[in-house]
Every structure is written in structure tokens, then in C-alpha cells.
């Protein structure tokens, strides 16, 4: 990794790093906060538009949002090759308000935005969430006027209505990671008068360079076995009743390798597997209850099980699993 790129990476905050990891992996991410969702939305908009130079669409969802409104809200006009990051920053608020001219004979040349920031997608109807699932799977959407496609690096960032709320089961599993941003950490750009020149800049060439470095990362047989054991222990944990999917297993391996270049390493240590697990599993895992805990099948006292499970969180369950798996030296 060249020194200039390394210097830019050192300037990134937690939100930028979450977006960066999603971009490199070509995956999608769920964000939540105990503060203002709209401030977080605007912060992510600035990050995507200025730091990464991506064209974005912002869409707010609610139970009354229709499939047509969702499909129209994610479309943008083709970007100009000479459009500067500053111009993108000035125009990002307009990305989600462009609508098709249903009665027009003009060819509809709009495309799906590079990044879709979907606020309160978890509150949307089942039909809208199914549309979002198909969008992520196929990278295309049909409107009344045309079929629209997405770029190779297309990404969806979902901001949930509250910490801990979830999307529909299958849509939720298509999101690789989740990231909680506490309000106490503040927002680096939205509440400040930072200019584009003051912000770090991650170019498409930098993303490609990091992907190349990721492909060259060495995963030892011992670490591969450790990854396997983490998954096995997740599935057999008495605190966890579900959510350890095949997709999550594949992504755990991929993100563990991806994090290595960001830490200046060309191999995967156990600590990066731990970090990846804390990003891959929190939005997926379903905790056991006093009625579904496995040991009840073998005669455990229901009251004792209830006391054992009381107060256990998803993070507690993940930590218990990681502490139970023997770490390779």
C-alpha cells in the first residue's frame, strides 16, 4: 500500500470505514443510531458524495410508501464525467426527488444510483422490502417507462428506525454488516463547516488497489479452522436460536480478509476474525428464549433457564462464543 493511500485511510472515521469496507466487498450495510436518523442520513450523504465521489439517492420509507415510489426514488440522471466532488455535494439532496415523466416520449436514460441511502426501510411494507430484495439481488429495477440498471459497485445503506429493529428475514440476510453510531461520537462533517478540500478522498483506483491487496491476503489453515469453529460454536450456542446463515459464513471469511490491508497486514490474525464477527452477526442473530433454549429438551429447569437468559444481549452471545473457541497461536 502506498503512503498516500495509507495517510488517507488514517483520516477516516467509523462511518467512512464502514462505507469503505462495504465498497471494497461490494456488500451492503445497516446503520443505526440513538441520535437523529436524519442527521446520520445527511452525514452519510456527504461521505458518499464527497469522500468517495459516488452518485447517491436518498429515500425515506414509511408504511405508506408504494413500490412505484420506492422504484422512482432510487433513480438518478447519468452523472457527468467532469462533475466535481463539490458539485456532487451541492446536488446530493436532489438525487431522491427526480421523478419520471410518465407521459413523455423522451427516452428514459436514468439509472440506479451508485449508493442508495434508505431511511426507515424496516418500516416499509412487505411489498417494498421484497422490491428492495430483488434490487439487491439483480441490480435492476423496472418502472413504468423502462428497465434501469445499477453499476457494478452498487450499494445500499439502510438506516433503521431504531437500534435493534430488523428488516424482513431474507432482505436482512443480504446486508453484510451492521454498524451502530452512538450520538456521543458526534458527526464529523454534518455539524462542521468542512470543505471538500478538508475531507479525505478515496478514489475508485484506491478501492481497486485495496481489492487487489485483499485478494493477496494469506489465510492460514489454522485460521481457516478457527473461522469454521466460530461458526460451529455460533450454531450450537445455548444463547442463539438462529441467524447463523450460509451467507453470513461466507461474508465472515471475506470481511476477515478484507480488514487485513486496512490494518497494514498481509495475513489474517484472530483479532480480525473477532472484529468481523462483531460486524457480521449482530443484525442477524436471534436469541433463545426460556421456551426455545436447547437444554429444555433434556430436562433443564425452565426457571433456571429463564434466569440464565435474562439480560443477555446479542453482543453478549457473540462474546460468549468467541471466548469459548480456542484461539490459534
Description:
- This is Magnesium chelatase.
- The chain has 329 residues and is α/β, with parallel strands linked by helices.
- The protein has 2 domains: 3-202, 3-Layer(aba) Sandwich (Rossmann fold); 216-324, Magnesium chelatase subunit I, C-Terminal domain (Helicase, Ruva Protein, domain 3), CATH 1.10.8.
- It contains 13 helices and 11 strands.
- It has a 5-stranded parallel sheet, with helices on one face.
- Strand 6 and strand 7 (147-149) form a beta hairpin.
- Helix 8 (204-215) packs across helix 10 (246-262).
- The longest helix has 17 residues, at 246-262.
- It starts with a helix and ends in a 5-residue tail after the last helix.
Largest sheet: 5 strands, parallel
What is the element string, with H for helices and E for strands? HHEHEHEHEEHEEEHEHHEHHEHH
Q: Give the CATH topology of the largest domain.
A: Rossmann fold
Rounded Rg? 21 Å
Give a summary of the structure in a few sentences:
With 329 residues, the chain is an alpha/beta fold. The protein has helices at residues 3-10, 14-25, 37-51, 67-73, 85-91, 126-138, 169-174, 204-215, 221-236, 246-262, 270-280, 302-309, 314-324, and strands spanning 29-33, 56-60, 75-76, 111-112, 115-119, 140-142, 147-149, 155-159, 177-181, 240-242, 286-287.
Q: What layout of secondary structure does this protein have?
A:
Elements: H1 3-10, H2 14-25, E1 29-33, H3 37-51, E2 56-60, H4 67-73, E3 75-76, H5 85-91, E4 111-112, E5 115-119, H6 126-138, E6 140-142, E7 147-149, E8 155-159, H7 169-174, E9 177-181, H8 204-215, H9 221-236, E10 240-242, H10 246-262, H11 270-280, E11 286-287, H12 302-309, H13 314-324
Helix pairs in contact: 2-8, 3-5, 8-10, 10-11
Organism: Saxophila tyrrhenica
Protein name: Magnesium chelatase
Amino acid at each position: 500500500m502506498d503512503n498516500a493511500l495509507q495517510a488517507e485511510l488514517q483520516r477516516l472515521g467509523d462511518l467512512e470505514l464502514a462505507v469503505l469496507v462495504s465498497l471494497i466487498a461490494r456488500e451492503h450495510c445497516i446503520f443505526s443510531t440513538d441520535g437523529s436518523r436524519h442527521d446520520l442520513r445527511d452525514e452519510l450523504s456527504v461521505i458518499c458524495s464527497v469522500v468517495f465521489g459516488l452518485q447517491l439517492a436518498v429515500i425515506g420509507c414509511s408504511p405508506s410508501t408504494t413500490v412505484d415510489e420506492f422504484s422512482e426514488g432510487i433513480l438518478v440522471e447519468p452523472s457527468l464525467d467532469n462533475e466535481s466532488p463539490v458539485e456532487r455535494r451541492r446536488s446530493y439532496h436532489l438525487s431522491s426527488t427526480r421523478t419520471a415523466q410518465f407521459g413523455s416520449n423522451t427516452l428514459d436514460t436514468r439509472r440506479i444510483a451508485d449508493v442508495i441511502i434508505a431511511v426507515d426501510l424496516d418500516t416499509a411494507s412487505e411489498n417494498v422490502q421484497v422490491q428492495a430484495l430483488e434490487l439487491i439481488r439483480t441490480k435492476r429495477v423496472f418502472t413504468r417507462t423502462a428497465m434501469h440498471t445499477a453499476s457494478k459497485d452498487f450499494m445500499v445503506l439502510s438506516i433503521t428506525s431504531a437500534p435493534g429493529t430488523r428488516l424482513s428475514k431474507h432482505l436482512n440476510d443480504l446486508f453484510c454488516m451492521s454498524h451502530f453510531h452512538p450520538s456521543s461520537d458526534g458527526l464529523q462533517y454534518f455539524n462542521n463547516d468542512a470543505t471538500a478540500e478538508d475531507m479525505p478522498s478515496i478514489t475508485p483506483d484506491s478501492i481497486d488497489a485495496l481489492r487487489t491487496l485483499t485478494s493477496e491476503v494469506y489465510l492460514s489453515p489454522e485460521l481457516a479452522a478457527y473461522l469454521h469453529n466460530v461458526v460451529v460454536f455460533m450454531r450450537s450456542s445455548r444463547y442463539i436460536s438462529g441467524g447463523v446463515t450460509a451467507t453470513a459464513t461466507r461474508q465472515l471469511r471475506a470481511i476477515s480478509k478484507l480488514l487485513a490491508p486496512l490494518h497494514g497486514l498481509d495475513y489474517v490474525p484472530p483479532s480480525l476474525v473477532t472484529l468481523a464477527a462483531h460486524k457480521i452477526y449482530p443484525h442477524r442473530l436471534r436469541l433463545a428464549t426460556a421456551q426455545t433454549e436447547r437444554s429444555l429438551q433434556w430436562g433443564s429447569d425452565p426457571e433456571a433457564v429463564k434466569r440464565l437468559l435474562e439480560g443477555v444481549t446479542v453482543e453478549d452471545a457473540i462474546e460468549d462464543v468467541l471466548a469459548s473457541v480456542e484461539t490459534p497461536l
